[in-house]
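Q: Hi! New to this. If I give you a protein sequence and the SMILES for pyridoxal-5'-phosphate, can you show me the bound structure?
A: Yes, paste them in.
Q: Okay, here:
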Amino acid sequence: MLFHSTRNTAHRVGLSAAIAQGIAPDGGLYVPDSLPKFSATDFDGLTELADIATQLIAPFAAGDELAASLAGICREAFNFPAPLVELHGTPGPASVLELFHGPTSAFKDFGARFLAATMQRIRANQANPSTRKLTILVATSGDTGGAVAAAFHARKGIEAGVLYPKGLVSQRQAQQLACWGDNVRTFTVQGNFDACQRMVKDAFADPSLQQSHELTSANSINVGRLLPQMVYYVNSSLEVWRRTGKPANYIIPSGNLGNSMACIWARAMGLPIGEVILATNANRTINDFLSSGEWQPRHCGPSPARQRPKNNFLLVM
Ligand SMILES: *Cc1c(COP(=O)(O)O)cnc(C)c1O
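A: Thanks. Here is the predicted structure of the protein with pyridoxal-5'-phosphate bound:
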């Protein structure tokens, strides 16, 4: 399977290159040339998330150096559960998909752990390891940075730099971001999340940094985070399907849409998924885009961290 840039379908690379680069040289996102097709029975007998992940991601790794190590990567990344817990007292059947059982209690642990396990193998496979340091740069409003720091901490030959807006993450998140040391460095930025993201993008575009560092991104644009996030949709939708014979509908708290995109890809691949509802905050850019077709980003202003609800679960109905 090859992946092409959303800005140029002629620029195509394999899975390991797509993950290692994070973003295509033209600034586009890497997306697969096509989505493999599955039916529910393809997963019969698989009960562990790691085995479901291996089966699901195998077509994306086909022909790539990562194919041989995929099962090991998935065993390492998917070592905690994502249980579907039934709700009582709701008008119809509804469950909560608990995505907070990873090391930092964020659903980002799924993507970050897969990404870190993958990057380490890509680095180890290099015949002539670059003398440039492999450096993961990530801008975070809280959860991504903590998950990435935890996943990359103490990995040999990889450094991680995490940028977050000063005063705009919760105390617990600040602790999760700054507690690592070793190969993880955390920077506070005077500004909001967009300012952090801008600094990361500037670093990618800086030729002198490119000479000394092999920079890559761990933000949600990396297909190495998107693919593993499909796994809990596959697992939970199959559970609902086997129990009720009906597709599962999802309500997904959404930001950059990485999590919901994973759900939509899983549905497009043939999994029993019905309606997908995106829940956003007061910034109604996506809402307006879906109804008008026009993309009009707007500034909503930073919301104080303490007012931001924690929602590392989603509803399945
Ligand atoms: C990251 C995050 C989101 C947004 O996820 P996207 O993939 O960016 O849409 C929503 N809620 C919580 C708690 C998060 O950590």
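A: DSSP finds twelve helices and twelve strands in the chain. Let me know if you'd like me to explain how to read the tokens.
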